Amino acid sequence: MLSTGSSSTEAARPLQGPPLWLLAELTYRCPLQCPYCSNPLDFARQGQELDTAQWIDVFTQARALGAAQLGFSGGEPLVREDLGELIGAARELGYYTNLITSGMGLTEKKILQFHEAGLDHIQVSFQASDEEVNNLLAGSRKAFEQKLAMARAVKAAGYPMVLNFVTHRHNIDHIDRIIDLCVALEADFVELATCQYYGWAELNRAGLLPTRTQLERAESVVNAYRTRLQAEGNPCRLILVTPDYYEERPKGCMNGWGNIFLTVTPDGTALPCHSARQLPVTFPNVREHSLAHIWYDSFGFNRFRGFDWMPEPCRSCDEKTRDFGGCRCQAYLLTGDASQADPVCSKSPHHHKILTARAEAELPQPPIEALTFRNERASRIICKG
Q1: What are the counts of helices (DSSP H) followed by strands (DSSP E) for the chain?
Q2: Band of the pLDDT at 131, cuts 50, 70, 90?
Q3: pLDDT averaged over every residue in the chain
Q4: Is the Cα dihedral 188, 193, 199, 204 positive or negative?
Q5: Exposure of 341 by Cβ count < 10 A (0-12 exposed, 13-18 middle, 19+ buried)?
Q6: Which residues, including other chains, have CB under 8 Å from residue 42's CB and lie 6 or more apart?
Q7: Is residue 255 pLDDT above 80, yes or no?
Q8: Mind listing the pLDDT tens digit for each residue in 352-373?
Q9: What is the pLDDT of residue 242?
Q10: How many CB atoms lie within 10 A of CB 177?
Q11: Which of 220, 244, 265, 366 is least surrounded by CB atoms within 10 angstroms?
């Protein structure tokens, strides 16, 4: 059992609602080496993973607080041999469950096992629409064929076909081919998510950030496909997520810091978003504190809640209730100060950093081989740094 720690006073709790979405990052282990992975750069030196009983205790505590949706993520969650047991425990607790996977290590037998355990949803990620680029980005010669096979198997098992393609300057010009592949696979939902520049993607930004022209063309192609698919009566839904770097106002990141989203990392560190570990903030661990204490009382989860922490121009901005000052991780990575206004915002005194990044994207494209791939060796070199 994990430590129960201290609990919040009842008087404080009405100021903050419960966590609704729990992301369980079960492991940082992964057979692939995607250069845009959101895992921390120093994942190789992270502590021992929570065991089965500890994860189930986390699920139990989060459910008692009000969490309704549980995502299994990583790394690659399929490397955990207890994944089926964790899915079953989550179902017994009443969660809606989602497996976010590369498909590597997935089999028809496991899909059946997870279905019987009560898994509600499986999302399979691809790197590209053609085998060569997909496998080069993944760092595996077998990745593309495995993904195709498992996407079909997920569909055959009765799950909605949910595919995810992370798009960037090395594949965005082929977004029409990506959509054609999704249609051929009878996808129900397709997330075309351009890189968000945290973790390994931030390290590789110069080789990943597309130009504005590329983005505008991609948006035009997606809209044309939406019109065509609707006319054909095809239920496939295309969801296009554009990068913050071409916006003039920041997104309301995670619907506000520590508002509805709770991440627990492989070693038990609790975070208000999956990228927050890179911030110079001490976050609590579920081995030492109860989730109630972590969510309601810990410094890390209260650091950027509300509006009192905001500097100008955010503090007096009439849009702060919509964007909450933007992304704290983005602010830190671009300015070195997590309390600054998100530089994506044109009102930010650091907006020039975004303009510089856009200009850099117009430079000649580096080859894929020039990217730093996410693997233990690279992580250990970065740790020594």
Answers
A1: 15, 9
A2: very high
A3: 93
A4: positive
A5: buried
A6: 379, 382, 383
A7: yes
A8: 999 999 999 999 988 999 999 9
A9: 87
A10: 13
A11: 220
The C-alpha atoms of residue 314 and residue 344 are separated, in whole angstroms, by 13
First and final C-alpha spacing in the chain: 37
162 - beta bridge partners? Answer: 123, 189
295-308 CB burial, b ≥16 within 10 A, e <16: bbbbebbbbbbeee
Q: Which helix (H) or strand (E) holds 208?
A: helix 205-208
- Rounded CA-CA distance 126/138 in Å is 9
Residue pointed to by tokens 């992301």: 23
Distance CA 160, CA 236 (A): 10
* pLDDT band of 383, cuts 50, 70, 90: confident
User: Taking the alpha carbons of 74, 76, 79, 82 in that order, is the dihedral positive or negative?
Assistant: positive
Q: Which of 7, 10, 14, 15 is nearest to 306 (CA)?
A: 15
Q: What angle is formed at CA 171 by the lines to CA 170 and CA 173, rounded to 5 degrees?
A: 105
Q: CB-based contacts of 156: which residues, under 8 Å, 6+ apart?
A: none
CB-CB contact of 19 with 92 (8 Å): no
Q: Please say whether the beta carbons of 265 and 277 come within 8 A.
A: yes
From the number of C-beta atoms within 10 Å of its C-beta (0-12, 13-18, 19+), residue 16 rates as middle
Q: How confident is the model at residue 1 (pLDDT cuts 50, 70, 90)?
A: very low
Q: Find all residues with CB under 8 Å of 221, minimum gap 6, and list them.
A: 175, 176, 179
Q: CB count, 10 Å around CB of 247?
A: 15
| Confidence bin at 9 (pLDDT 50/70/90) | very low
pLDDT at 385: 63
Answer for the pair 328, 335: CB distance below 8 angstroms, yes or no: no
Of all helices (H) and strands (E), which one includes residue 376? helix 376-384
Q: What is the pLDDT of residues 262-308, one digit of tens each?
A: 999 999 999 999 999 999 999 999 999 999 999 999 999 999 999 99
Is the pTM value of this prediction over 0.90?
Answer: yes
Q: What is the pLDDT of residues 176-230, one digit of tens each?
A: 999 999 999 999 999 999 999 999 999 999 999 999 999 999 999 999 999 999 9
Instruction: Please check whether residue 295 is in contact with residue 338, taking contact to mean a CB–CB distance below 8 angstroms.
Output: no
